[in-house]
Design goal:
GO terms for molecular function: rRNA binding; structural constituent of ribosome. One of its GO terms (cellular component) is ribonucleoprotein complex. This is Large ribosomal subunit protein uL24. One of two assembly initiator proteins, it binds directly to the 5'-end of the 23S rRNA, where it nucleates assembly of the 50S subunit. One of the proteins that surrounds the polypeptide exit tunnel on the outside of the subunit. It comes from Phycicoccus duodecadis. The chain is mainly β. It folds into two domains: 1-76, SH3 type barrels (Roll), CATH 2.30.30.30; 79-114, no CATH class. The protein is 0% helix and 55% strand. It contains no helices and ten strands. The strands form three sheets. Strands 6-3-2-1-7-8 form a six-stranded antiparallel sheet, with no helix packed on it. It starts with 9 loop residues before the first strand and ends in a 7-residue tail after the last strand. The mean pLDDT is 88.
């Protein structure tokens, strides 16, 4: 199954403790079908104390984003700021005398390019 959400997309959370919140996709893991969204699903990690190369102390409590499943997010349509599904449109582009097919992501709600 092709993952239609890419890094840099603005998405809205559909399920879970952060339902309704929006954020930008930081990372996408295709093997586990999970995405990390900025400011969503923040968890507290306990990191071991140590020293950095400059001698400053590191460690303690670190709050960071945790990945969520791709089925729990939907891309936000830029025209009306509401979540939408994604369709693909195939266009033929002529380059160097040859025709090449390119896929363009389109919002199902408005029909505009994403």
């Amino acid at each position: 199954m092709a993952n239609k959400i890419k890094k840099g997309d603005t998405v809205q959370v559909l399920a879970g403790k952060d339902k309704g919140s929006t954020g930008k996709v930081i990372a996408v893991n295709r093997e586990t079908q999970r995405v990390t969204v900025e400011g969503v699903n923040r968890v507290t990690r306990h990191t071991k104390a140590g020293e950095s190369g400059r001698g400053s102390r590191t460690g303690g409590l670190v709050v960071q984003e945790s990945p969520i499943h791709v089925s729990n997010v939907a891309i936000v349509d830029p025209s009306d700021k509401k979540p939408t599904r994604i369709k693909t449109r195939v266009e033929t582009v002529e380059r160097d005398g040859r025709q090449k097919a390119t896929r363009i992501r389109v919002g199902a709600r408005s029909g505009k390019d994403l």
